[in-house]
Structure formats: C-alpha cells, structure tokens
Amino acid sequence: xxxxxxxxxxxxxxxxxxxxxxxxxxxxxxxxxxxxxxxxxxxxxxxxxxxxxxxxxxxxxxxxxxxxxxxxxxxxxxxxxxxxxxxxxx
Length: 90
Hints:
- The protein is mostly helical.
- The protein has 4 helices and no strands.
- The protein is elongated.
C-alpha cells in the first residue's frame, strides 16, 4: 500500500520516529489506525471514553447483582433478531 500523507503528517510521523517513540513510520501509522478503530468502537456502543465504558459496565453489573438483569434467553433472541435484520439489509 502506498499512502500520501501530506507535509504536515509526514513531519509529524517523522518526528515520532526521530523521538524514539516508534522505530518506523509504519509503526506510527498502525498505532494511529488502532486508535481510530478504538474510537469507532466506542461510538458504536455510545460511550465517549474507556473510563465511561468501564463505569457503564460496573453500573450494569451492580444492576444484575441487584436482580434487575435480563434473562439470557431473551438477550440471545434479541441479538438473533438484530443479526437476521442486518443480514436481510445487506
């Protein structure tokens, strides 16, 4: 793959390599893509940060511990319906 970054990003990537944070430009770009992937996942699950996700998970666990959980069979049925609907729309 051949990518043109432009002067600003080429300078940024070169600076990261020269600082010793990364050994190659490819490492810088891979790390940037991992961050983009993580951000996209957080958006899909409607949270803005990993601490917010952790807080929501802890809140959900407390709710389950208090007996306010949802039956696993019901969850599986909902997930199955969503999956079928997505496949039908593709």
